[in-house]
Amino acid sequence: MKYLVTGGAGFIGSALFYRLMQSPEAHVTIVDKMTYAANPASLAPLESDPRFRLVRADICDLPRMMDLVRAEAPDVIFHLAAETHVDRSIDGAGAFVQTNLVGTFAMLQAARAHFEQARPAGFRFVHVSTDEVFGSLGAEGLFDETTAYDPSSPYSATKAGADHLAHAWHRTYGLPVVVSNCSNNYGPRQFPEKLIPLVLLNALDGKPLPVYGDGLNVRDWLHVEDHADALVRIAEAGVPGQSYAVGGNSEKTNIEIVRLICSLLDARRPSKKPHTDLITYVIDRPGHDRRYAIDAGKIKRDLGWAPSRKFEQGLADTVDWYLANADWWRPLRDGVYAGDRLGKVEA
Ligand SMILES: NC(=O)c1ccc[n+]([C@@H]2O[C@H](COP(=O)([O-])OP(=O)(O)OC[C@H]3O[C@@H](n4cnc5c(N)ncnc54)[C@H](O)[C@@H]3O)[C@@H](O)[C@H]2O)c1
Fold first, then answer.
1. CA-proximal residue: ligand 1, atom 6 (nearest)
2. 122 lies in a domain?
3. For 71-108, b where at least 16 C-beta lie within 10 A, e where not — what string?
4. Which residues are catalytic?
5. Any idea what DSSP says for residue 239?
6. Does a structural domain hold residue 58?
Protein backbone atom coordinates (compact mmCIF):
# COMPACT_ATOMS: atom_id res chain seq x y z
CA MET A 1 0.00 0.00 0.00
CA LYS A 2 1.25 3.46 -0.91
CA TYR A 3 0.12 6.27 1.33
CA LEU A 4 0.55 9.99 0.87
CA VAL A 5 0.10 11.96 4.10
CA THR A 6 -0.07 15.75 4.00
CA GLY A 7 0.96 17.44 7.26
CA GLY A 8 2.72 14.27 8.42
CA ALA A 9 5.34 16.16 10.42
CA GLY A 10 2.65 17.62 12.67
CA PHE A 11 0.97 16.18 15.74
CA ILE A 12 -1.71 13.88 14.30
CA GLY A 13 0.12 13.29 11.02
CA SER A 14 3.16 11.86 12.82
CA ALA A 15 0.95 9.56 14.94
CA LEU A 16 -0.74 8.38 11.73
CA PHE A 17 2.69 7.89 10.12
CA TYR A 18 3.83 5.53 12.91
CA ARG A 19 0.50 3.71 12.77
CA LEU A 20 0.79 3.16 8.99
CA MET A 21 4.44 2.06 9.18
CA GLN A 22 3.44 -0.77 11.55
CA SER A 23 2.35 -2.62 8.43
CA PRO A 24 5.42 -4.06 6.64
CA GLU A 25 3.78 -3.47 3.23
CA ALA A 26 3.24 0.25 3.85
CA HIS A 27 5.15 2.90 1.92
CA VAL A 28 4.53 6.41 3.21
CA THR A 29 5.31 9.72 1.56
CA ILE A 30 4.82 12.76 3.77
CA VAL A 31 4.24 16.17 2.18
CA ASP A 32 4.89 18.93 4.65
CA LYS A 33 5.85 22.59 4.40
CA MET A 34 7.60 22.25 7.78
CA THR A 35 5.92 25.33 9.27
CA TYR A 36 6.52 26.34 12.89
CA ALA A 37 4.09 23.51 13.85
CA ALA A 38 6.22 20.76 12.31
CA ASN A 39 9.06 19.18 14.22
CA PRO A 40 11.63 17.11 12.28
CA ALA A 41 12.33 15.28 15.56
CA SER A 42 8.83 13.80 15.30
CA LEU A 43 9.91 11.74 12.28
CA ALA A 44 13.53 11.09 13.27
CA PRO A 45 13.14 7.50 14.53
CA LEU A 46 12.14 6.27 11.04
CA GLU A 47 13.84 8.89 8.86
CA SER A 48 16.22 6.41 7.22
CA ASP A 49 13.58 3.72 6.63
CA PRO A 50 13.51 3.06 2.87
CA ARG A 51 9.70 2.82 2.97
CA PHE A 52 9.46 6.49 4.03
CA ARG A 53 10.02 9.67 2.07
CA LEU A 54 9.62 13.27 3.25
CA VAL A 55 8.79 15.87 0.61
CA ARG A 56 9.15 19.40 1.86
CA ALA A 57 6.53 21.32 -0.12
CA ASP A 58 3.58 23.68 0.18
CA ILE A 59 0.25 22.00 -0.58
CA CYS A 60 -0.92 25.30 -2.11
CA ASP A 61 1.57 24.76 -4.97
CA LEU A 62 -0.88 23.18 -7.43
CA PRO A 63 1.57 22.24 -10.24
CA ARG A 64 3.89 20.64 -7.67
CA MET A 65 1.05 18.71 -6.05
CA MET A 66 -0.17 17.53 -9.50
CA ASP A 67 3.33 16.24 -10.32
CA LEU A 68 3.87 14.71 -6.92
CA VAL A 69 0.59 12.80 -6.75
CA ARG A 70 1.00 11.57 -10.33
CA ALA A 71 4.54 10.34 -9.58
CA GLU A 72 3.71 8.78 -6.21
CA ALA A 73 0.46 7.17 -7.43
CA PRO A 74 -0.82 6.60 -3.88
CA ASP A 75 -3.58 4.15 -2.95
CA VAL A 76 -4.73 6.51 -0.20
CA ILE A 77 -4.21 10.22 0.43
CA PHE A 78 -4.65 11.31 4.03
CA HIS A 79 -5.04 15.08 3.95
CA LEU A 80 -4.08 16.59 7.32
CA ALA A 81 -1.91 19.61 6.41
CA ALA A 82 -3.54 22.70 7.86
CA GLU A 83 -3.03 25.75 9.97
CA THR A 84 -4.61 24.53 13.19
CA HIS A 85 -4.39 26.95 16.09
CA VAL A 86 -7.58 28.95 16.68
CA ASP A 87 -5.74 31.75 18.50
CA ARG A 88 -3.33 32.22 15.59
CA SER A 89 -6.31 32.32 13.19
CA ILE A 90 -7.67 35.28 15.18
CA ASP A 91 -4.36 37.13 14.87
CA GLY A 92 -3.84 36.33 11.18
CA ALA A 93 -6.49 34.51 9.16
CA GLY A 94 -4.66 34.77 5.81
CA ALA A 95 -2.45 31.71 6.27
CA PHE A 96 -5.56 29.71 7.26
CA VAL A 97 -7.43 30.75 4.12
CA GLN A 98 -4.39 29.82 2.02
CA THR A 99 -3.51 26.42 3.46
CA ASN A 100 -6.89 25.18 4.61
CA LEU A 101 -8.89 26.30 1.56
CA VAL A 102 -6.46 26.86 -1.34
CA GLY A 103 -4.27 23.96 -0.20
CA THR A 104 -7.23 21.59 0.08
CA PHE A 105 -8.35 22.65 -3.40
CA ALA A 106 -4.87 21.82 -4.77
CA MET A 107 -4.84 18.40 -3.09
CA LEU A 108 -8.33 17.59 -4.38
CA GLN A 109 -7.36 18.60 -7.92
CA ALA A 110 -4.17 16.56 -7.80
CA ALA A 111 -6.06 13.56 -6.40
CA ARG A 112 -8.74 13.92 -9.06
CA ALA A 113 -6.20 13.95 -11.92
CA HIS A 114 -4.51 10.83 -10.47
CA PHE A 115 -7.84 9.05 -9.94
CA GLU A 116 -9.14 9.81 -13.42
CA GLN A 117 -5.89 8.83 -15.12
CA ALA A 118 -4.84 5.72 -13.13
CA ARG A 119 -8.25 4.53 -11.74
CA PRO A 120 -6.53 2.91 -8.74
CA ALA A 121 -8.81 0.25 -7.20
CA GLY A 122 -10.06 1.20 -3.75
CA PHE A 123 -8.53 4.69 -3.90
CA ARG A 124 -9.58 6.99 -1.06
CA PHE A 125 -9.00 10.66 -0.29
CA VAL A 126 -9.41 10.93 3.48
CA HIS A 127 -10.05 14.55 4.38
CA VAL A 128 -9.24 15.05 8.07
CA SER A 129 -11.43 17.66 9.71
CA THR A 130 -12.63 18.77 13.09
CA ASP A 131 -15.81 18.96 15.19
CA GLU A 132 -15.20 22.72 15.43
CA VAL A 133 -16.97 23.17 12.06
CA PHE A 134 -20.29 22.57 13.89
CA GLY A 135 -19.95 25.61 16.17
CA SER A 136 -20.98 25.52 19.80
CA LEU A 137 -23.31 23.26 21.80
CA GLY A 138 -25.29 24.25 24.87
CA ALA A 139 -25.30 22.12 28.00
CA GLU A 140 -27.14 19.28 26.23
CA GLY A 141 -26.81 17.48 22.91
CA LEU A 142 -24.11 15.97 20.72
CA PHE A 143 -22.69 16.64 17.26
CA ASP A 144 -23.12 13.94 14.65
CA GLU A 145 -22.84 13.64 10.87
CA THR A 146 -26.19 15.40 10.37
CA THR A 147 -25.34 18.49 12.43
CA ALA A 148 -25.46 21.73 10.42
CA TYR A 149 -22.19 23.58 9.95
CA ASP A 150 -21.91 26.77 12.03
CA PRO A 151 -18.23 27.65 12.51
CA SER A 152 -17.17 30.46 14.87
CA SER A 153 -13.46 31.11 14.30
CA PRO A 154 -11.39 31.82 11.19
CA TYR A 155 -9.81 28.37 11.78
CA SER A 156 -13.11 26.49 11.91
CA ALA A 157 -14.59 28.56 9.06
CA THR A 158 -11.71 27.57 6.76
CA LYS A 159 -11.97 23.93 7.85
CA ALA A 160 -15.72 24.06 7.15
CA GLY A 161 -15.06 25.46 3.69
CA ALA A 162 -12.50 22.73 3.06
CA ASP A 163 -15.03 20.06 4.08
CA HIS A 164 -17.51 21.50 1.56
CA LEU A 165 -14.86 21.41 -1.17
CA ALA A 166 -14.09 17.79 -0.32
CA HIS A 167 -17.77 16.74 -0.48
CA ALA A 168 -18.24 18.70 -3.71
CA TRP A 169 -15.31 16.88 -5.34
CA HIS A 170 -17.11 13.62 -4.56
CA ARG A 171 -20.54 14.75 -5.78
CA THR A 172 -19.33 16.58 -8.87
CA TYR A 173 -16.30 14.59 -10.00
CA GLY A 174 -16.86 11.21 -8.32
CA LEU A 175 -13.61 11.43 -6.35
CA PRO A 176 -13.80 8.82 -3.53
CA VAL A 177 -13.60 11.31 -0.68
CA VAL A 178 -14.34 10.42 2.93
CA VAL A 179 -14.43 13.14 5.61
CA SER A 180 -13.70 12.72 9.33
CA ASN A 181 -14.82 15.27 11.92
CA CYS A 182 -12.85 14.58 15.08
CA SER A 183 -12.88 16.07 18.56
CA ASN A 184 -9.87 17.48 20.46
CA ASN A 185 -6.80 15.26 20.33
CA TYR A 186 -4.12 14.84 22.99
CA GLY A 187 -0.98 12.75 23.25
CA PRO A 188 2.74 12.82 22.41
CA ARG A 189 4.33 15.31 19.98
CA GLN A 190 1.66 18.04 20.20
CA PHE A 191 3.05 21.52 19.59
CA PRO A 192 3.17 23.41 22.91
CA GLU A 193 0.66 26.09 21.94
CA LYS A 194 -2.30 23.75 22.53
CA LEU A 195 -3.90 23.53 25.99
CA ILE A 196 -2.39 20.33 27.39
CA PRO A 197 1.30 20.77 26.45
CA LEU A 198 1.14 24.53 27.11
CA VAL A 199 -0.14 24.06 30.65
CA LEU A 200 2.22 21.18 31.33
CA LEU A 201 5.36 22.98 30.15
CA ASN A 202 4.40 26.29 31.79
CA ALA A 203 3.90 24.40 35.05
CA LEU A 204 7.33 22.77 34.72
CA ASP A 205 8.85 26.23 34.15
CA GLY A 206 6.92 27.73 37.11
CA LYS A 207 5.04 30.08 34.75
CA PRO A 208 1.34 31.08 35.02
CA LEU A 209 -1.17 28.53 33.71
CA PRO A 210 -3.58 30.59 31.59
CA VAL A 211 -7.26 29.60 31.80
CA TYR A 212 -9.54 31.42 29.37
CA GLY A 213 -12.72 33.06 30.72
CA ASP A 214 -14.36 31.01 33.50
CA GLY A 215 -12.56 27.80 32.49
CA LEU A 216 -15.85 25.99 31.96
CA ASN A 217 -15.65 25.49 28.18
CA VAL A 218 -16.08 21.78 27.47
CA ARG A 219 -14.17 19.68 24.95
CA ASP A 220 -14.39 15.97 24.14
CA TRP A 221 -10.87 14.49 24.27
CA LEU A 222 -9.51 11.65 22.15
CA HIS A 223 -6.03 10.13 22.31
CA VAL A 224 -4.17 10.80 19.07
CA GLU A 225 -3.37 7.10 18.56
CA ASP A 226 -7.08 6.29 18.75
CA HIS A 227 -7.62 8.98 16.11
CA ALA A 228 -4.93 7.40 13.91
CA ASP A 229 -6.70 4.02 14.23
CA ALA A 230 -9.99 5.67 13.24
CA LEU A 231 -8.39 7.25 10.15
CA VAL A 232 -7.00 3.88 9.04
CA ARG A 233 -10.47 2.30 9.47
CA ILE A 234 -12.02 5.15 7.49
CA ALA A 235 -9.50 4.61 4.66
CA GLU A 236 -10.17 0.86 4.66
CA ALA A 237 -13.94 0.83 4.90
CA GLY A 238 -15.35 4.38 4.82
CA VAL A 239 -18.03 4.92 2.19
CA PRO A 240 -17.12 7.57 -0.41
CA GLY A 241 -19.11 10.76 0.05
CA GLN A 242 -19.76 10.05 3.74
CA SER A 243 -18.61 11.86 6.87
CA TYR A 244 -17.68 10.16 10.13
CA ALA A 245 -17.84 11.92 13.50
CA VAL A 246 -14.96 10.71 15.69
CA GLY A 247 -14.81 11.35 19.43
CA GLY A 248 -13.44 10.07 22.71
CA ASN A 249 -16.66 10.10 24.76
CA SER A 250 -14.65 12.02 27.31
CA GLU A 251 -16.00 15.49 28.01
CA LYS A 252 -13.94 17.71 30.30
CA THR A 253 -13.97 21.39 31.17
CA ASN A 254 -10.70 23.23 30.56
CA ILE A 255 -10.24 23.89 34.28
CA GLU A 256 -10.64 20.14 34.99
CA ILE A 257 -7.86 19.42 32.50
CA VAL A 258 -5.58 22.03 34.07
CA ARG A 259 -6.21 20.66 37.57
CA LEU A 260 -5.58 17.08 36.44
CA ILE A 261 -2.23 18.09 34.92
CA CYS A 262 -1.32 19.90 38.14
CA SER A 263 -2.04 16.86 40.28
CA LEU A 264 -0.07 14.57 37.93
CA LEU A 265 2.88 16.97 38.19
CA ASP A 266 2.53 17.31 41.98
CA ALA A 267 3.08 13.54 42.16
CA ARG A 268 5.91 13.41 39.61
CA ARG A 269 7.74 16.73 40.09
CA PRO A 270 6.71 18.06 43.51
CA SER A 271 7.55 21.70 44.18
CA LYS A 272 7.19 23.81 47.35
CA LYS A 273 3.64 24.84 46.46
CA PRO A 274 0.96 22.86 44.59
CA HIS A 275 1.04 23.53 40.85
CA THR A 276 -2.58 24.76 41.02
CA ASP A 277 -1.18 27.94 42.64
CA LEU A 278 0.02 28.88 39.12
CA ILE A 279 -3.53 28.89 37.67
CA THR A 280 -4.36 32.35 36.27
CA TYR A 281 -7.72 33.27 34.77
CA VAL A 282 -7.24 35.44 31.67
CA ILE A 283 -9.53 37.31 29.28
CA ASP A 284 -11.55 34.89 27.14
CA ARG A 285 -10.90 34.06 23.49
CA PRO A 286 -13.28 36.03 21.23
CA GLY A 287 -15.91 33.74 19.71
CA HIS A 288 -14.91 30.96 22.13
CA ASP A 289 -17.24 27.99 21.57
CA ARG A 290 -18.76 26.81 24.84
CA ARG A 291 -19.06 23.08 24.37
CA TYR A 292 -18.16 20.37 21.86
CA ALA A 293 -19.31 16.75 22.22
CA ILE A 294 -19.50 13.94 19.70
CA ASP A 295 -21.91 11.09 19.05
CA ALA A 296 -19.49 8.59 17.46
CA GLY A 297 -22.22 5.95 16.97
CA LYS A 298 -21.96 5.81 13.17
CA ILE A 299 -18.25 4.96 12.99
CA LYS A 300 -18.78 2.36 15.73
CA ARG A 301 -21.77 0.74 13.99
CA ASP A 302 -20.52 0.92 10.40
CA LEU A 303 -16.74 0.60 10.74
CA GLY A 304 -16.33 -1.09 14.14
CA TRP A 305 -14.13 1.67 15.58
CA ALA A 306 -14.33 2.88 19.19
CA PRO A 307 -11.76 4.66 21.36
CA SER A 308 -9.58 2.26 23.31
CA ARG A 309 -7.90 4.54 25.85
CA LYS A 310 -9.33 5.98 29.07
CA PHE A 311 -8.67 9.72 29.30
CA GLU A 312 -7.11 9.75 32.80
CA GLN A 313 -4.58 7.03 31.85
CA GLY A 314 -3.92 8.63 28.45
CA LEU A 315 -3.29 12.01 30.08
CA ALA A 316 -0.90 10.48 32.63
CA ASP A 317 0.98 8.73 29.78
CA THR A 318 1.12 12.04 27.88
CA VAL A 319 2.57 13.87 30.90
CA ASP A 320 5.16 11.09 31.26
CA TRP A 321 6.02 11.36 27.55
CA TYR A 322 6.73 15.11 27.83
CA LEU A 323 8.76 14.59 31.01
CA ALA A 324 10.89 11.97 29.23
CA ASN A 325 11.23 13.87 25.94
CA ALA A 326 12.52 17.36 26.74
CA ASP A 327 14.81 16.99 23.70
CA TRP A 328 11.65 17.09 21.57
CA TRP A 329 10.01 20.17 23.11
CA ARG A 330 12.79 22.28 24.62
CA PRO A 331 13.97 23.67 21.22
CA LEU A 332 10.37 24.63 20.44
CA ARG A 333 9.89 26.45 23.76
CA ASP A 334 13.29 28.16 23.50
CA GLY A 335 13.28 29.05 19.81
CA VAL A 336 9.78 28.91 18.30
CA TYR A 337 7.07 29.66 20.85
CA ALA A 338 7.65 30.38 24.54
CA GLY A 339 3.98 30.33 25.58
CA ASP A 340 2.91 33.97 25.16
CA ARG A 341 -0.78 34.78 24.86
CA LEU A 342 -2.11 34.69 21.27
CA GLY A 343 -5.48 35.58 19.78
CA LYS A 344 -6.56 38.27 22.22
CA VAL A 345 -8.63 40.73 20.23
CA GLU A 346 -9.00 44.04 22.05
CA ALA A 347 -12.59 45.26 22.32
N1 LIG B 1 -5.36 18.71 16.95
C2 LIG B 1 -6.65 18.42 17.06
O3 LIG B 1 -7.16 18.33 18.19
C4 LIG B 1 -7.48 18.15 15.83
C5 LIG B 1 -8.77 17.62 16.00
C6 LIG B 1 -9.52 17.34 14.85
C7 LIG B 1 -9.01 17.56 13.59
N8 LIG B 1 -7.76 18.10 13.45
C9 LIG B 1 -7.23 18.28 12.09
O10 LIG B 1 -6.18 17.35 11.90
C11 LIG B 1 -5.19 17.89 11.05
C12 LIG B 1 -3.83 17.83 11.74
O13 LIG B 1 -3.90 18.57 12.95
P14 LIG B 1 -2.64 18.67 13.92
O15 LIG B 1 -3.14 18.99 15.27
O16 LIG B 1 -1.77 17.50 13.72
O17 LIG B 1 -1.93 19.96 13.31
P18 LIG B 1 -0.44 20.50 13.48
O19 LIG B 1 -0.56 21.98 13.50
O20 LIG B 1 0.26 19.81 14.59
O21 LIG B 1 0.29 20.04 12.12
C22 LIG B 1 -0.04 20.58 10.87
C23 LIG B 1 1.04 20.16 9.89
O24 LIG B 1 0.69 20.70 8.60
C25 LIG B 1 1.85 21.27 8.03
N26 LIG B 1 1.45 22.36 7.10
C27 LIG B 1 0.86 23.53 7.43
N28 LIG B 1 0.67 24.27 6.31
C29 LIG B 1 1.12 23.53 5.28
C30 LIG B 1 1.19 23.75 3.88
N31 LIG B 1 0.73 24.88 3.33
N32 LIG B 1 1.71 22.79 3.11
C33 LIG B 1 2.18 21.63 3.65
N34 LIG B 1 2.16 21.38 4.96
C35 LIG B 1 1.63 22.31 5.77
C36 LIG B 1 2.65 21.80 9.19
O37 LIG B 1 4.01 22.00 8.85
C38 LIG B 1 2.42 20.71 10.24
O39 LIG B 1 3.39 19.69 10.12
C40 LIG B 1 -5.64 19.30 10.71
O41 LIG B 1 -6.26 19.27 9.45
C42 LIG B 1 -6.64 19.64 11.81
O43 LIG B 1 -7.60 20.56 11.36
C44 LIG B 1 -6.98 18.39 14.54
1. 130
2. yes
3. ebebbbbbbbbbbbbbbbbbeebeebbebbbbbbbbbb
4. 131-132, 155
5. P
6. yes
Mean pLDDT of 257-282: 97
For ligand 1, atom 28, the nearest C-alpha belongs to: 82
The dihedrals phi and psi of 18, each to the nearest 5 degrees, come to: -65, -35
Among 5, 19, 35, the mutation site with the greatest number of ligand 1 atoms within 8 A of its Cβ is 35
Q: Of all atoms in ligand 1, which is nearest to the CA of residue 79?
A: 41
Residue 81 inside a domain? The answer is: yes
pLDDT, one tens digit per residue, over 1-29 is 999 999 999 999 999 999 999 999 999 99
Query: 25 lies in which domain range?
Result: 2-190+221-247+287-309
Distance between CA atoms of 85 and 49, rounded to whole angstroms? 31
Number of structural domains, the chain?
1
Q: Does residue 279 lie in a domain region?
A: no
| CATH code, domain carrying 85 | 3.40.50.720
The CA 68 to ligand 1 mean position distance, Å, reads 20
pLDDT in tens, 142-173: 999 999 999 999 999 999 999 999 999 999 99
Pocket of ligand 1 (CB under 6 A): 6-7, 9-13, 31-35, 37-38, 58-60, 80-84, 99, 103, 128-130, 159, 182, 184-185, 191
